[in-house]
Amino acid sequence: MTKQEALFIYTLQLADNCLILGQRLSELCGHGPELETDIGISNIALDLIGQCRSLYQYAAEIEGKGQTEDQLAMLREGSAYRNVLLVEYPNEDFAYTMVRQFFFDVHHYLVLDQLKKSTDERLAAIAAKSIKEVTYHLRYSSEWMIRLGDGTTESHERMQNAVDELWLYTDELCTMNEADQLMIEAGVAPNQAEIKPLYYAKIEEILEKATLAKPSHSWQQYGGKEGRHTEYLSHLLTDLQYMQRTYPNMEW
Amino acid sequence: MSPEILSLEERFQSRIDAEIKIEPKDWMPEKYRKTLIRQISQHAHSEIVGMLPEGNWITRAPSLRRKSVLLAKVQDEAGHGLYLYSAAETLGISRDELVEQLLTGKAKYSSIFNYPTTSWADMGAIGWLVDGAAIMNQVMLTRTSYGPYARAMVRICKEESFHQRQGYEIMMTLAKGTPEQKAMAQDSLNRWWWPSLMMFGPNDAASTHSAQSMKWKIKRKSNDELRQAFVDSAMPQVEYLGLTVPDPDLKWNEERGHYDFGAIDWDEFWSVVKGNGPCNRQRMRTKQKAHKEGAWVREAAMAHAEKRRQRAVEQDEKVA
Lengths: 252, 320
Hints:
The complex is a heterodimer of chains A (252) and B (320). With 252 residues, chain A is mainly α.
């Protein structure tokens, strides 16, 4: 793998996480528990879609094959998506939505905080812009973790279930593949080995405030970054790609 | 009616006639209050239910740019719903009561949202025609006699005109696109044209609330005047797109200086108002489901806020 190829893959990984989570959140618009949460969640979705656009535009330039952001986002096969499994998990209920968001936001924040010092100026600039938004996402999801974890008996149970279920997708965020390794060596990407302890420390801090237990099982699922996804992803792509597949090569 | 009330009503009317805004703490006839609650809440509910037909296409938007714009638009509608519920609350009704009225079917919302969005072009047609028709009404309402409603409208109108432009831009892209895209745009215009004209409500002669609302300057233009203004402004845009409206009687009338148009199918209008439109049941079920499934979240948020309050009190007591 050349450095150029690694940079392309690394950028796609970042972009795909934002796209797939943004797409999941955008399913909820109009269906949330109250107007304020519809607005809050749409805001996060909008930020993530905005971030993925900047990243796909850059990835397209790195690749140099004349692809557009939309072709990268909407015309790849499922196995070419490099997002982590966590973000494709469905919106089972508001607890799942919030726990998924929180597990992602903590990591996203830590990555961007390092990435803004990247030797790659373009990624550094995208990270510097994105971290302002993600700081807010993290505050929002942390507050909801605490509110619902330490709310009623029912909300506590639902949150604990979601934490237990989604826990097995957390470690993948901190894994490093060949592209990651090359990018760490080049000073482009943060070292996930350094991020991992900070990641779990922050999660434990909020779980404790939320009166939620850290899951005792250590079983983890991996594969998203290598294109081995859950059954959920292809359904999400059916919607995401519908127009581009049905009406190819048109301007919208 | 007692002479005191009569004189209060006279004073109220003279303030209206003098174009002085009515504010929440001012005396107002009970019927004025009720009319406003009905109208503002219908407007709020329309924003909320209106999120559904457009929300239907957010996940399938054809490009990332379109997805962002549509998501932002639907989010704005949630925001409009919030300001309008707040404006209604100044009249002495709670948001919970208003939501309850929507979910039990006691309150109405704009019938236009009981039509299905079956293609991407509908995102264009809704922005252009439905928001366009709404703006005709809302611009008038920025001068309505009730202060909080008028002020909410000023803010809403700014965003709505952006929505209308983005809708027209979608239509323009389709109309200038491939034959399939142009056909998609035409099909969408065919389906949304008449329901958009119906948005202005019954003809003036058949409108039950109109006369009193005009006297109180809640409304300042009649349904038919607004409908005519809408047709007059939309037709040059239809022509520019190279599309046609599904009305053989539509033509420019030199003498009147307006477009003439065919008769509206009022049977369809009343049928949809009464709950028999294509999507009435689905829209209500969707909102009821979201409300029901979100109950535990709202309860937990209240319970947590109460716990925090209790803890703060305990902390204060310790310090004292």
